[in-house]
Design brief:
- α4 packs antiparallel against α6.
- The chain is mostly helical and 130 residues long.
- It is built from 6 helices and no strands.
- It is globular, with a radius of gyration of 18 Å.
C-alpha cells in the first residue's frame, strides 16, 4: 500500500494547525469580568505565548521537516509527564489524566513522527532522481 506524497506532506501540517488551535482555546480563560479591558488583553496575550512558540516551530518544520519533526516529538514526549502529573494532582483520576495527555501532547508526537516520515520520504524520492 502506498501513501500519496501529498497526504504525507499536508497531514502533519493540518494536524499541527488544529492542535495549535486547540491549545489556543485555553487562552480564553484570561477573560475575567472583574479585570479591566487592558488587563484581560494582556492576560490573553500571555496565554497565547505557547501557541506563538508552536506556530514558530511549525514554520521551522515547514521549511526543515526533520528538525521540526524532532522538535515536535521532543515537545510532545517531554511535556507529557509534566502535564500528566499536574492534571493528576488536580483531579486525582488516572484515566482523566491520560485523556488529557492524549488530547494535548499526542497530536504533537504524531506531528513530529509525520514530519520525520515526510523528510524520509523526500530523501528517498531525491535518491531515486539522482
Amino acid at each position: 500500500m502506498t501513501i500519496s506524497p501529498r497526504l504525507i506532506y499536508w497531514l502533519p501540517r493540518i494536524i499541527c494547525i488544529l492542535a495549535i488551535s486547540f491549545v489556543s482555546i485555553f487562552a480564553l480563560d484570561a477573560f475575567d469580568p472583574s479585570l479591566t479591558f487592558w488587563q484581560q488583553l494582556q492576560g490573553f496575550a500571555m496565554h497565547l505565548i505557547p501557541s506563538f512558540i508552536l506556530l514558530l516551530i511549525l514554520l521551522i518544520a515547514w521549511k526543515w521537516e526533520l528538525i521540526g519533526g524532532i522538535i515536535f516529538l521532543l515537545i510532545g514526549i517531554g511535556l507529557s509527564p509534566f502535564i500528566f502529573i499536574h492534571n493528576y494532582r488536580i483531579n486525582g483520576s488516572l484515566s482523566m489524566s491520560l485523556w488529557v495527555i492524549i488530547m494535548i501532547t499526542f497530536p504533537f508526537i504524531l506531528v513530529g513522527i509525520l514530519f520525520i516520515l515526510g523528510h524520509r520520504n523526500n530523501r528517498k524520492k531525491d535518491k531515486v532522481i539522482d
